Automatic annotation (TrEMBL):
One of its GO terms (biological process) is 'de novo' UMP biosynthetic process. It comes from Amycolatopsis rifamycinica. Belongs to the OMP decarboxylase family. Type 2 subfamily. It catalyses: orotidine 5'-phosphate + H(+) = UMP + CO2. This is Orotidine 5'-phosphate decarboxylase.
Amino acid sequence: MSGRERFGARLAKAVAARGPLCAGIDPHPGLIEAWGLPVDVSGLERFALSATEVLAAHAAIVKPQSAFFESFGPDGVRVLERVVETARDAGALVLLDVKRGDIGSTMAAYTAAYVAEGAAIAADAITVSPYLGFGSLAQCAETAVAAGRGLFVLARTSNPEAGEVQNAKLPDGRTVAQAIVDSVASLNAGAEPLGDAGVVVGATVPPGELDLSRLNGPVLAPGFGAQGATVADLRALFGASLPGVLPASSRDILKHGPEQAALRQAVERVAEVLADPQENGQ
């Protein structure tokens, strides 16, 4: 076992100190251009590091989208490594959005890359896909917990195509998404104050589709902000207390760059809305 404190415990402390916002670091080419930067590695570096310096100082957790870095090749991956280091130095946890999911030795290699002790790009948690069977994630989950890291498992995503698979019914009457939630809950049984395995549930998903009452883990809720979900939607979907829910916002904040003061004001404004939705008109 690693000497690192469990991810669920570290996340609970970070949210208590900074609020539940998960701030995305998504260097989309359009956003890089909107900042007046070239769409090359130099522009990627300036965009990503400038954004990380601000967001990681205010958000409990930041979420770099790996694909936008990988698209620039090895130099882009090196920028991603610097983003992870910069965010950690600023006191934020890092959820690396990689959505990995495979079997056998391939999944073992992904595990070694991101969540094992001594991982090459050592994030605090990563996103993973269970759609080659939930059992394909078993070794990754075990390794992550042993290293004091966590997983967020795709359960009910907000993209329109998701329903045909995730809402399909199993022989026992549950949807595929609910079965994934239940499997994650089994990993978190007995953990306090929060388990190390979370699920991804889009903030735009209709209320009532999932029972999260036994999850005992965090919920990453993309779709907040630019994709249309409001605090009222979060409350309707997850309940008034929003326990363990991490609303994710990226473009709604990043569009205010490149001025760091404007970025800071944007992330503070979102954090205030999440902390006191009624006062902020939600």
